[in-house]
Amino acid sequence: MAKTAVRGTFLDFVDDPYKHVGNEEAAARFQADGLLVVEDGVIVDFGAYDDIASTHSGVEITEIRDRIILPGFIDGHIHLPQTRVLGAYGEQLLPWLQKWVFPEEHKYSEREYAEEGTKHFFDNLLASGTTTAQTFTTGNLTCNEVFFEEASRRNMRMIAGLTGIDRHVPDYFANTPEQFYDDSRTLIEKWHGKGRNLYAITPRFGFGASNELLAACQKLKEEFPDLWINTHISENPAEVHGVLALHDDCHDYLGVYEKFGLVGPKFTGGHGVWLSNSEFRRFSEAGASVAFCPSSNLYLGSGLFRLGRALDPEHRVLVSYGTDMGGGNRFSLLNSLEDGYKVGMLNNTILDGSILPSEQDLAESERNKLSPLRAFYSITKGGAEALYIDDLVGSFDIGKEADFVALDWTAGPPATAWHQSLSYSDGPLTLETVSDLLFGVMMVGDERAVDQTWIAGELAYQKA
Ligand code: GUN
Ligand code: ZN
């Protein structure tokens, strides 16, 4: 494939802004007029246009004007077969699963139904600027085959796996541990590392997993140590109580996964709303990650994730952001950032000590504040680090795969323009201006701000 290049305004991250309190700009890399050079889907050069353009004479350049170009967004936790149950009314997690989710997901055993839902799923990802997602499927082989086929057609860097459940589930939707093991193995051998597909051993959650199912996960991880492990943890209080009743030899929810040797690097627990300080510490020590799913945690009434606690620098937990669509009611990670900001502000009502002075923790409170640089780091490089794919995606470093998104800070509801006029009136973009515009995109705008999404150096979505 010939070399191609994109010229425009670029922002990515070279470090974690949470490590630079008061000076977050030090973690960002801003090119007001930059050039990104791509060959075979991979970034081969990146820098200021004036510095590097002459070394690439003859390369065809696409100019993207009046946009902010960021690495593609990374969704750490989403559900393929919930595409058609977005916005289901009235229930918290456990009754919501029974009433809305299991009946819908079961339909994905039928190839045609799965193919149509999967097409909509990927179209929505691209329209949201999401280029990578760690994805739950169902426990059915056909559904998973359809997923990996479509991911391959789109050439997107995806992580997914057969999603097993054998407790607290209707018979028609239950796996057996043997079938879970056999079908997972079939999929691993066929799809893991094929094209851009990566495989995650996926026990749905502790509340839906027998010891035998978890033992099958352990066996798979021992046989294929480079696989990911993706699950849910401590999302809802009724779920947590149920897990401790089902696994009564374990002290806490994380202990269930620890017992089967699942918790380490490449392990993601979705939600983590009710994790104890001890569990956060064990996540940190193991190099495991939590997927923070603020839109879902609000929509299903699960609770307020203690982001500032998870990010305690002494025991820093790796955190990705997940839409958890359809537990979350939006596909767009921009909405997750909006909700994440609000969750942090709500947490701080306790941490500022105004209710109970003994609860005051100003350092944790500071970490709850989701600045725009923290936010966009978290859904790009930070998400990639949490998922252990930062050698592949998440920034514009040379050698990374060329997935990126071009944001139009003027698009969206009319109020976007009012916000934007506070911070910007033409003239050259600076990092400070771009940060303000990005805060406007996440708090006032929506996925209409996603103008283009590029996959492996090719335009995959253009807003109509
Ligand atoms: N826990 C187990 N399954 C699910 C699911 O589909 N969505 C959410 N939000 N939590 C879960
Ligand atoms: Zn989920």
Automatic annotation (TrEMBL):
<dbReference type="InterPro" id="IPR014311">
    <property type="entry name" value="Guanine_deaminase"/>
</dbReference>
<dbReference type="InterPro" id="IPR032466">
    <property type="entry name" value="Metal_Hydrolase"/>
</dbReference>
<comment type="similarity">
    <text>Belongs to the metallo-dependent hydrolases superfamily. ATZ/TRZ family.</text>
</comment>
<protein>
    <recommendedName>
        <fullName>Guanine deaminase</fullName>
        <ecNumber>3.5.4.3</ecNumber>
    </recommendedName>
</protein>
<dbReference type="Pfam" id="PF01979">
    <property type="entry name" value="Amidohydro_1"/>
</dbReference>
<dbReference type="GO" id="GO:0008892">
    <property type="term" value="F:guanine deaminase activity"/>
</dbReference>
<dbReference type="InterPro" id="IPR006680">
    <property type="entry name" value="Amidohydro-rel"/>
</dbReference>
<keyword id="KW-0378">Hydrolase</keyword>
<dbReference type="InterPro" id="IPR051607">
    <property type="entry name" value="Metallo-dep_hydrolases"/>
</dbReference>
<comment type="pathway">
    <text>Purine metabolism; guanine degradation; xanthine from guanine: step 1/1.</text>
</comment>
<keyword id="KW-0479">Metal-binding</keyword>
<comment type="function">
    <text>Catalyzes the hydrolytic deamination of guanine, producing xanthine and ammonia.</text>
</comment>
<feature type="domain" description="Amidohydrolase-related">
    <location>
        <begin position="68"/>
        <end position="458"/>
    </location>
</feature>
<keyword id="KW-0862">Zinc</keyword>
<dbReference type="InterPro" id="IPR011059">
    <property type="entry name" value="Metal-dep_hydrolase_composite"/>
</dbReference>
